[in-house]
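Hi L.,

You mentioned the student needs an example of a multi-chain input paired with its predicted structure. This one should do, with 342 residues in total across all chains.
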Amino acid sequence: MDIRPDVELRGFNTLALPGRAAHFATVTDLDEAQVALAFARERGLAVTVLGAGSNVVLAGDLPGLLIRVAIRGRALVAQGGDQLELRLGAGEDWPATVEYSLAQGWYGLENLALIPGTVGAAPVQNIGAYGVELAQRFVALEALEIATGALRRFDRGECAFGYRDSFFKRAGRDRWLIVSVTLALCRTPHLVLDYPALRAALAEHPPGPLTPAAVAAAVCALRRARLPDPAVLPNAGSFFENPVVPAEQAQALAARFPGLVTFPAPGGRVKLAAAWLIEQCGWKGVARDGVAVHDRQALVLIHRGGGARALLALAAAIRASVRAHFGVELIPEPRILGGHWS
Ligand code: EPU
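Structure written out for the whole complex:
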C-alpha cells in the first residue's frame, strides 16, 4: 500500500466537489488499515475515513490522512433454520451486496436496493429506505480504534441506532474505522410493504406471489425515477433529514398547512417529509450559481460546478426559508468534511 501526498478528491465524492487530501491511502485489508493508522499516529495526522464518498460534502482541503476503505469480502459466518449471518468487508459496494444476497436467496435487504455507498458506511448513518433500516438487519460490526489501532466488536445495542443516526455520528464520531459488518438475513421472504409509495408501485404488480426480487425491482424503479444518478448529476442523496417533531407541533402544522406529509416516528413523535416542506417554499428545480435543487426530488441538491461555497449557501437559504415558513429546523444529512455548516 502506498500513502500518497496531495491527492485531488473530486473523483472520490459523488457531489464531485474539488478539494485535496494532504495524505491519501486506500486500504484493502485489516493490515493495511493498521499500517495507515500507524502512519497517521506517528506523524500526529488527523484521520478522515471515507467509503464511496456518497454522503459527504467536501467543503475544503483535508490537512491530515484520508483513508479510503476498500476492504472486500463476503462470508457466511452462521446459519441455522431460516436465519443466516453474512459478514461483509466494509469496502463492499452496498447495491452489489443487495443484488448478491437476493441472487443467493438470502432475503431482508430488498427495500434497501440501490442505495449508493459502501457497506462500512451503512451503519454510520443507519441507512434506510422504503420502510426498512439497516439496524433491523444488523448483527454486529468490527472497527479499528483510530487512536490506538485496536480492533473491537460492536453489537447492535452498542451502535445506538436511530433514524439516520448511530454512535458513530455522536460519541464515536471520528474515533473508529469500520472494517466489517455482519447482517442477519432469512431464507424465506418476510416482505415489508408498509411504505405508501412502495405499496402503490406494487399495486400494479401482475397477479401471483410477490417475491423479494419484485420488491427490489420496484424499489429500484422508484429510486431511478426520483433520485439522480451521481455519475450524471453529482449529488449526495437526501441533503436533509426528515425532521422529527412532537405530535402537537405536527397537528398544529397540519391544521395550518393542508397536505402536510407525515410519517409516524418512535415515541409518538411525527416525521415530516422535508422534501414537501422544501417544495412548498418554492425551491424544487431552482438552479443558481452552479448548484440546484433536483426537479424530481426536492430533498436532493445537485452540484453543477458551482463549488462547495455555492452549495452551502443554497442549503442555508433552504433551511432559512423552511424555518421562516414552517418554524421547522432542517438538519443536513451528509457529513461535512474540511469545513462547517453555516
Ligand atoms: N415529496 C414532495 N416533494 C418532493 C419529493 C417528495 O412533496 O420533491 C413528498 C412525497 O410526495 C412523499 C414524501 O415527500 O409523500 C416522501 O417522499 P419520498 O418517498 O421520496 O421520501 P423522502 O422522505 O423524501 C426518504 C429518505 C430517502 C429514501 C426515501 C424512501 C431521508 C432523509 N430520506 O426520502 O433516503 O430513499 O425516504 O424511503 O430519510 C437518503 O437518505 O439519501 C435517501 C435518499
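You could point out the following to them. Residues 129-130, 195, 197, 226-227, 237-238, 241-242, 261, 273, 275-276, 279, 284, 297-299, 333 surround EPU (CB under 6 Å). Residues 90 and 179 are 5 Å apart (CA to CA).

Best wishes,
N.
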